Amino acid sequence: MINLKPLLISGREVLPLIEGGKGISISNGESSGAWAAAGGVGTFSGVNADSYDAQRRVIPQIYKGRTRVERHEELVAYAVTGGITQARTAHERSNGKGRIHMNILWEMGAAERVLKSVLEGAKGIIHGVTCGAGMPYRIAEISAKFGVYYYPIVSSARAFNALWKRAYHKFSEWLGAVVYEDPWLAGGHNGLSNSEDPAKPESPYPRVKALRALMNSFGLHKIPIVMAGGVWWLKEWKDWLDNPEIGPIAFQFGTRPLLTKESPISNAWKKRLLQLKDGDVYLNHFSPTGFYSSAVKNEFMQELTQRSERQIPYSVEAVGEHTAELMIGPAARARAVFVTPHDKERAEGWIQRGFVEAMRTPDSTLIFVDADKKREILADQTACMGCLSACNFSNWSCNEQNTTGRKPDPRSFCIQKTLQNISHDGDIDKQLMFSGHNAYRFASDPFYANGFIPTVQQLVERIATGE
Predict the structure, then answer these.
(1) How many helices (H) and strands (E) does the chain have?
(2) What does pTM read for this prediction?
């Protein structure tokens, strides 16, 4: 057993156990409400959340607009309706216990509009807002306006320092906690900076210690830190409890709540979690957000990896080592580009294997795909609905021009499409499956022996024992 003391979070003493908010429809009102009912903090996703018809069937998010801007407005409407729906569901499911938080990505399309509208439509039943994926300077002001606490997600003391000095010091009374998310172990998008090596993970203790020292210098001694990413058994973190170098601490669980009765993911997904091995989840750089992310190795990730491996630099004129002419495009409209002799040989080999379509990237390279994949990529780029504030894949941006100004990047993918698919019973091998790096522990943890899937209540009770 461990000495797990309640903490004051979002205005109420609760277990210092927080359900991590997971993207599209993966943390919903049922799962987060159940977590709150168990005495902790439940977190539903405010990223394109589901809404339902009169028979409680999920309303498919189908876009009818002819332009990206029209479809973007449809997406915002879906997001607001879904967010309010999930907040109400969580509130009802919680039975007045625990706390309910909403998780948003600052880099999602129209994040401020969606957040304000959901908080307005669900007044009094959302107690906190967790926000990461970017530098959410405005989250403090918005939360304070609605009388809810804010929980910025950072991966370093340096990031929080910038947020505090620019904005948060003005709204310190509504700072609920600071979430430290381990950029090497957390699932989904990760906050690795350009100075950090994705292949060289750093211990979280000195990084969190530095964060606490910084917070103390701002007078935030009583504000908790939430440790997120890589947390499985609390007995492995007992040295963090009642530790003056760490201060008040709570723990966030993103991966373990996936495998519960209330979790909305498919049975196939739950079964796969029980079968994962160490190394099956890895950091990659394919996300159209530009962030690193952690996902399960499957056919979807394998195809993206191979797509980028079939890549060569080119120039439109013979220059330097780019002396070999390569004809690309349909025979009737083929155009010449110049590559190195070695790369021409590689390209011809790919073409012989059926990867006959050369697609230009924003970085003056070509990738080689088959005809079906090219059609899929172009169709997905054309169907963009602006789900991100800026998308490398489609070149959408939430600015006056609605574009990043760069070419669409065929090395990436439509994240809205694949996350909607996998969260609504899509093929788990052919869709993006985000996960924390500790997911392989499901297979060896005795709690899940013989394929046991607990209720949220059972999981929270188990975690509180230290395991």
Answers:
(1) 13, 18
(2) 0.94
